[in-house]
Design brief:
Length: 154
């Protein structure tokens, strides 16, 4: 299979994957809201004194997770010095970069879900969802970026 065809398939797959993971953020919130409303979760484990500490700590970890996965993706999928020029990267590296960035964007959602189930504060899921959606916006593959990195027209 030709390099251009592989790049087009990986680009389309990366877009679908990132979009599906971003939509799952909303689904997770709806599921958590439903489960809490019908009373299918256990008692709140976190008390009122420790809850803010856990919440803001989890928000900090969420932001650091997105930033660190972005840094890791850049290190792993970037061009080695003097080896690859821009416009000559492998499409698989850009696909891996998208996967790593999406993994980082999924971390806030998972922490938000855990916090919701431990504290029964459903509206505290919203900042985690917003951080996650912002991470997915950065992770979403852009045609112009892929074209310039690969040196081909998608």
């Amino acid at each position: 299979m030709e390099r251009t065809e592989i790049a087009k398939k990986l680009f389309a797959q990366a877009q679908r994957m990132t979009l599906a993971m971003a939509v799952s953020v909303l689904l997770y919130g709806a599921i958590a809201y439903y489960l809490i409303q019908i009373g299918k979760v256990g008692p709140a484990v976190l008390d009122a004194q420790i809850y803010p500490l856990v919440k803001y700590g989890a928000l900090g970890i969420s932001i650091m997770g997105i930033l660190s996965m972005g840094f890791l993706a850049g290190r792993m999928c970037g061009a080695p010095q003097g080896v690859e020029a821009e416009g000559n990267r492998a499409p698989q590296k850009l696909f891996l970069r998208t996967i790593l960035m999406s993994v980082g964007a999924e971390l806030p959602v998972l922490l938000g879900m855990i916090l919701v189930f431990l504290g029964h504060q459903i509206y505290d899921y919203v900042p985690f969802a917003a951080i996650s959606l912002a991470g997915f916006a950065f992770a979403f593959p852009k045609k112009q970026h892929w074209s310039s990195q690969l040196g081909i027209d998608l």
